[in-house]
Every structure is written in structure tokens, then in C-alpha cells.
Design a protein that fits this description.
single chain, 255 residues, alpha/beta, two-stranded antiparallel sheet, 15 strands, 25% helix
């Protein structure tokens, strides 16, 4: 099963980093967040990726073009120019990189991958990580029999909360629960038929296609109650970087 990753946005809310590189290439622990996302899928047996590039997409292409070399031990004969691969540490991934344009919206990017999507596929964004059970998500989608399934999450509140009694703080919550609403966690499973609901490059996946699927009872909801986080701002990056550096990254589901 193919995994489509939308990796073409401008990342304007994290412009401190995205003016230099596309948002999916911003690093957590010395590796692009795109790599972390692919490792989540790869650890669960999904290794065939279609990446929809846009803004500074050449940087994503260059990263994967050199990935094998960067993750291998080599001997270079400077006289002959020959190179011997001693040990290959690269993942067994197949990665298709598509240029879907800088201004194309999310639905339009997905539509441009149509020729690669002839059967059920997974879809996600290039900025969110989770300890999600991908096999469980796919099984749920197949049981429900709908055209698409969206993963719902309940993000924690963004600010510390205080339980107050009089003039005293009786309890402090560093990561309080959110408002109780379920929101899209950005991990989807879709049938190829959803592509017919995308009109043109300006179609936003999260609007007309998903709204129409919902109205027609063709959008299932898979509830994920584990860890989920999106790297939307510099603050989010710092948070994820801290979890990784402390050895406490819940999305690290690989050995």
C-alpha cells in the first residue's frame, strides 16, 4: 500500500526555519521531520512512498537522491574514481517524488499523484508525528467500508493551566487537556475514488472533498488516543526537539 505525504506547503507560521528549507525538511534530532514520519510508517511495514513536493521541493529531491550515499560506509579510490559500498544503512524504501507546484492546494497536490494511486492508500502531511497504529487504522477503514477514514485526536492545551482556590494555586497542569473536541490528526486512509472529488489545483482537501464525504456518510473516524503533535510553529519544533533529546519521543515506534 502506498503512503502519500503532502510536503509542498510554505510553512509560513514557522518562517524562522522555512525561509531556508521546506517545512518537512526542518530537523528534529538531526533528521528532517519528513524522515520521522516515514520511519513511523516504515516500522509498520509500509515502505512505498509518494511525496508531493512544492516549495523548495528540490531540497527534498536532493536529500533522497543522496540518501543511500549518506547512510552507507564507503571506500573511494581517488586514483580510479571507483567507489565500494562497505555497509548500507539506508532504509528499504521506495520513494516517488512529484513536483506538484508551489501554489497548488492540498487537494490539487493529491490529484496530481493520481496515476500512482490505483488502490487503497494512506495519506498524511509532512509535519505531524504520532504513535499511531497504522495497521489498526487500515483495518478500521476496511471494516467501515467508506471512501475515506480520518484519524481524530484530542490535542492538549497550549498553555499551562492553574486550578485556583482563593488566592492559592491548588493544582498546576503543565500539559492540560484541551477543550475535549476531536480534531483531524492528518492520518488518512483513502480509496482512489476520492480523487474524483477534487476539481482543480485550487481544491483544498480539508474543505469540499472531506465536507462532501462527510455529508454523504463516506468519511469514517478512527479515534487515536495516544501521542500526536504537529510542528506548526517554532514552539512546536522546540517541544519535539526536547522530547527527542530526552529520549522520550513517543512517536519513535522503531527500534
Amino acid at each position: 500500500m502506498k503512503v502519500v505525504i503532502l510536503a509542498g506547503g510554505l510553512g509560513t507560521r514557522i518562517s524562522e526555519e522555512s525561509h531556508l528549507r521546506p517545512k518537512p525538511m526542518i530537523e528534529i534530532g538531526g533528521k528532517p521531520i519528513l524522515w520521522h514520519i516515514m520511519k513511523i510508517f516504515g516500522a509498520q511495514g509500509m515502505t512505498d512512498f509518494v511525496i508531493c513536493c512544492g516549495y523548495k521541493g528540490y531540497m527534498i529531491k536532493e536529500y533522497f537522491a543522496n540518501y543511500f550515499l549518506h547512510n552507507a560506509d564507503i571506500t573511494v579510490d581517488m586514483t580510479s574514481g571507483g567507489m565500494e559500498i562497505l555497509q548500507n544503512g539506508a532504509e528499504p524504501w521506495r520513494v516517488t517524488l512529484l513536483d506538484t507546484g508551489e501554489e497548488t492546494q492540498t487537494g490539487g497536490r493529491l490529484a496530481l499523484a493520481k496515476e500512482h494511486l490505483t488502490e487503497t492508500f494512506c495519506l498524511t502531511y509532512g509535519d505531524g508525528v504520532a504513535n499511531i497504529d497504522i495497521a489498526g487504522l487500515i483495518d478500521f477503514h476496511r471494516r467501515e467500508g467508506t471512501e475515506a477514514t480520518v484519524t481524530a485526536v484530542q490535542p492538549s492545551g497550549r498553555f499551562g493551566a492553574i486550578e485556583i482556590e482563593g488566592a492559592r494555586a491548588r493544582r498546576f497542569f503543565e500539559k492540560p487537556p484541551g477543550d475535549g473536541h476531536w480534531v483531524s490528526g492528518g492520518f488518512f486512509v483513502c480509496e482512489p475514488s476520492v480523487l474524483s472529488r477534487i476539481n482543480d489545483p485550487s481544491t483544498i482537501w480539508e474543505k469540499e472533498p472531506l465536507e462532501r464525504l462527510s455529508r454523504e456518510d463516506q468519511l469514517s473516524v478512527y479515534k487515536h488516543e495516544g501521542f500526536w503533535a504537529a510542528m506548526d510553529t517554532l514552539r512546536d519544533k522546540v517541544f519535539l526537539e526536547r522530547l527527542w533529546s530526552e529520549g522520550n519521543a513517543p512517536w519513535k515506534v522503531w527500534a
